Amino acid sequence: MWILWFQRAVSDQMIQILHHDADCVAVMKPAGVAAIPEKRDDPVCLVALLAAQLGVRVMPVHRLDKEVSGVMLYALHPEAHRFLNNAFEKREVHKTYQALVHGVMSEDQGVITRPIREFGSGRMGVDDIKGKPSETKYFVLKRSDRFTLVELSPQTGRRHQLRVHLYSIGHPIVGDTRYGDKALQAGFPRLMLTSTGIDLTLPSEKRLTLANIIPSDFAAMLEKII
Q1: Domains defined for the chain, CATH in brackets
Q2: Type and span of the H or E element at 11
Q3: Model pLDDT for residues 123-160, shown as the tens digit of each residue
Q4: Is the separation of the CB atoms in 71 and 218 below 8 Å?
Q5: Is residue 12 among the annotated active site residues?
Q6: What is the pTM of this model?
Q7: Which pLDDT value is given to residue 65?
Q8: Which helix (H) or strand (E) holds 217?
Q9: Residue-by-residue DSSP string for 23-78
Q10: Active-site residue among 65, 108, 145, 181?
């Protein structure tokens, strides 16, 4: 019953447009909404919702986990899709995130360079022998007696990279039931990870810089927790 209510609520929601031109559209992805179809003809994934809202086909060029909110970019035609995919593959796109983690991080900034691989059932983890090189830069924004708010900049694009890296150093993201104590994490209504910005050159050769974009539900949770 809750799932049906959530699907109806999402389908009735207007997706927030952050940038829109002839080649692409940048939007605010809500937490709990899949970025791409989870099944055939999925009516509540962001691709379907955005296509219905704009009246045109949209093509994903990168992904965010379903539980993650924040800035996402979609191409609007095949040429732009190829251009943007190439930019991501060449690591010419700079992305930033914010995460609220358990525990008090001692260092003000740092780099996590633990190799990551898949362990089965979609779960990723650190493997110093068989893992793929992975790098995440972090910078502490705020601390409380139990939590730390950090800005994250992934230098590689491994699946669940930010979640795995923070978990691997003893600071799992708040609300992450996949990477953290499930009993503890279940007390939080959402995963406290959001994409806050993106910076890249567009197919038009103009520069798109979106920064410090925080969804309202994430901000509201921060006020309650930290």
Answers
A1: 2-225 (3.30.2350.10)
A2: helix 2-11
A3: 999 999 999 999 999 999 999 999 999 999 999 999 99
A4: no
A5: no
A6: 0.91
A7: 95
A8: helix 216-225
A9: SEEEEEEPTTS-SS-SSTT-TTSHHHHHHHHHTS--EESS---TT-EEEEEEESSH
A10: 65
